């Protein structure tokens, strides 16, 4: 990851009308990574570490916020609220970072299984997870977090 990727993402989000605030520190990042059971990939990690932001949406995706305020839509709370979804995703290497921009409950995740340093972004049908269907396949949304945000 380069600083230029984070700058490109933040500039793009600001152009789209989503303000970001520079952060001095991110005391909840270590706890978040411990809850996920792994270090977050760049540039997503740096975005969380160095910026505070409300939920933003780009075509196909609505991010969780990163305010550390304990709200239901914050990255520190939202991926862990539904135990059935959480307990299915995390052990399989999927880290939920948002939902579709349609208002659907489907989880949109970093797919850490094959490329943990550059994970694809995938979506699952939440009903498949909740109904414990035997075959649940991810749908690729974007090749990376950068590609997802910059496509908007």
From TrEMBL:
InterPro entries: Knr4/Smi1-like_dom (IPR018958), Knr4/Smi1-like_sf (IPR037883). It holds the Pfam family SMI1_KNR4. It comes from the Bacteria. Residues 29-148 form the Knr4/Smi1-like domain. Gene3D superfamilies: SMI1/KNR4-like (3.40.1580.10). This is Knr4/Smi1-like domain-containing protein. It comes from Arenimonas oryziterrae DSM 21050 = YC6267.
